[in-house]
Amino acid sequence: MTSDREQVRSLDDPEIMVQTPATIYDAIPPLTPRTEREAEFYQLEDGEMFLNLGPQHPSTHGVLRVVMKIDGERIVDVDPVLGYLHRGVEKICEYGDWHHAISNTDPLEYAASMFSEALPVLAAEQLLDLEVPRRADYIRVLAWELNRISSHALFIGWLALDLGGLTPILYGFAERDEIVEMLAALTGQKLLFNYMRIGGVNGDLNHEFLSRLGDWMSRAGEHINGQAKLMNENEIFVNRTKGLGVLDRETALGLGMSGPPLRATGVPYDVRRAHPYSVYPELEFDIPTRSDGDSYARYLLHIEEIKQSLRIIDQVLHKMPDGPVMAKLPRLLRIPPNRAFAAIESPRGQYGVYAVSDGSDQPFRFRIHDPSFFNLQAVGSLSEGQVLADIMAIMASLDPIMGGIDK
Amino acid sequence: MRRTTDRRSLQHLDERLGDHLVVPAEAMGDTIELVIAPASVPAVMRALREDGDLRYELLADICGVDTGLTMQVVYHLWSPLSPDWVRVIADGLSRDDPRVPSITFLWPGAEWGEREAYDMFGIEFEGNRDLRRIYMPPDYLAFPLRKDFALADDASRGPGEGIRHMETPLPPGEVRANPVIRTSAGAGAVLGPDGELLALGAGSIALPEAPDAAEERA
Fold it and tell me: Which of A73, A203, A378, B73 could form a disulfide with B90 if both were Cys (CB 3.0 to 4.6 A apart)?
């Protein structure tokens, strides 16, 4: 395919003829710009230069490559390059049956996989119009909220780490470790749980899980207050996040954002309340919002949300009904031809799925909407005019997970 | 928890956008579905977003769908004024040259969503100023999520079956076999009517050298 392509002179070394551009300098002039935006981006003004960040860079939280146009230390424009983790999950899901989709979507949001694995489950249940046993619904909420706390605890640590503070991530991981051990007692897995099932969950609560949970719940509130105390008034942390990466309401809505970055601009959009699913309407909790829209507001929201999740877990444990944890379903699941959209509030925002069934045992189309994918788009407008070192703080505060972004 | 759509918003949408709808607005569970022609996309989306009594300002999803017969672009919207989702289906794009107007003038964030649909289905969004591939490499030629892009595993369905159409589900009692036969032809391989290989797929791996050729060289 590539053999008959014209060779071009490398810009790095004019003596060399190259077929595939090896460096960013090779890539610019020989390829004619494919779009208006690309032509604009790769046009250098006097004093500007390109800088490549990633794909292997610790602060990109995965394998994200960002091409930056810089003037001195100020960022003029950025062009994120995705696809390094792309495995074609949507296509893979079309080739397995509905149950396979659970383990295929599991690794998407690898810091909180209870959420991404729930997508095929919720979609199939909506298509089948299936009533889930109440106990299963309560166990799901319990698992989701625990996973949300573990993901948020990690986010707080990551944010501080990207700003040069080592201590908070140790506390974040300590918290995450306790929850992960707990969920391992429940599901048998520490990272990719594979716990959700169409019609319920895989296995009832057990003694080890409940005793670990009770033990941790007695200390959790104290832990989160300690974490907040460590960072909320840390002068370096506040100075490097306050007023940085400011988004306003209209921009955030226009970019299709959701989750904490959207709520930090004052939009109280949380799928658990905006479009209730599972047993969330029976539970009392608030949707914290902020109006500043900066990195610091996004950080504060995560602390608030952990507190709300603790509140939910407390209620769930008191209200947990008895009964079965799985609905009766045939092993070979044929879903009548129909289409459905289901969404769930993950730690990063609205995780959606648009599933089309053609009457067979496999999804006909399985579209996954990842919140990080749309949240990451903001990095372009947020980093303009900022210094190079701050792009890490901005990116970390958007909390992207590349597994879901690249699918 | 089962929910049903709000009858009033359904009626309101039907009256407000009636001229553009190909079929009357339909309530499906907790979603209101509007099917429109590709050319009406800018007008319908603008009305949904900007009308004071609709305010569908949150773009919950944008994606492409290949039904096997036509291409669709599907938008999901949410409004703080209504608990229901609105699904807008721009139906009837030709599979040979799918084109639809871009909505980046309303939601700049649709840019990446449209890039993804372009990458996966080859749908051209007119007015998107950055329509290049987003996941696949820039020199990639195929559109992976199209139904005529067969994975190697698809050989199990038999070469004569062709594209699987959404409108013609499997006959009752028939179960599709699990993927067991694999070809080395790679993803996107083109097979002839009798299963012979016409072209290698884009993701194909070069076949290993025949053992006698390797011996000769040694």
Answer: B73
Other residues' Cβ atoms within 10 Å of the Cβ of residue A5: 10
CB interface of A with B, residues 276-305, below 8 Å: 276-279, 281
Residue B138 lies in a domain: no
B101: its two tokens: 């107007």
- Higher-confidence residue of B121 and A360: namely B121
- B13 and B72 in one domain? yes
- Burial letters for A221-247: b for 16+ Cβ neighbours within 10 Å, e otherwise? eebbeebbebbeebeebeebbeebbbb
Is B180 a member of any domain? Answer: yes
A50, two tokens: 């390109």
Domain range spanning residue B217?
A: 150-218
Q: Which residue of A has its CA nearest to B80?
A: A274
Residue B121 included in any domain: yes
* Interface pTM, i.e. ipTM: 0.84
Helix (H, G, I), strand (E, B) or coil at A338: strand
CA pair distance B182, B177, nearest whole angstrom: 13
Query: Measured between beta carbons, which residues in chain A are less than 8 angstroms from residue B175?
Result: 332, 361
- Token readout for A233 is 């008034």
What single-letter amino acid sits at B151? L
Encode pLDDT of B38-84 as tens digits: 999 999 999 888 888 888 888 889 999 988 788 899 999 988 888 88
B89 with B154, same domain: the answer is: no
AA letter at A204: D
Asked if A373 reaches chain B (Cβ–Cβ under 8 Å), the answer is: yes
Domains in chain B: how many in total?
A: 2
Q: Does residue B209 share a domain with residue B102?
A: no
Q: Does A249 touch chain B (CB under 8 A)?
A: no
Q: Are residues B109 and B177 in the same domain?
A: no
Rounded to 5°, angle at Cα B99 from B94 and B101 = 140
pLDDT over 90 percentage in chain A: 27
Q: How far apart are CA B187 and CA B200, in angstroms?
A: 8
Q: Which of A249, A240, A242, A297 is nearest to A269 (CA)?
A: A249
* Weakly modelled stretches of chain A, pLDDT under 50: 1-2, 26, 29-30
Whether residue B154 sits in one domain with residue B122? no
Domains and CATH numbers, chain A: 8-81 (no CATH), 90-406 (1.10.645.10)
CATH number at residue B24: 3.30.460.80
* Residue B169 shares a structural domain with residue B111: no
Q: Is A330 on the interface with B (CB under 8 A)?
A: no
Closest partner residue to A352 (CB to CB) among B76, B110, B129 is B76
- Hey, of A335, A358, A379, which one would you mutate to test binding to chain B, going by the most B CBs within 10 A of its CB? A358
Nearest to A114 by CA among A142, A95, A136, A92: A142
Q: In this structure, which amino acid lies at residue B34?
A: L
A132 in B contact zone (CB under 8 Å): no
Partner B contacted by A257 (CB < 8 A): yes
Q: For A377, which of B29, B112, B154 is closest by C-beta distance?
A: B112
Q: Which residues of A touch B165 (CB under 8 A)?
A: 358
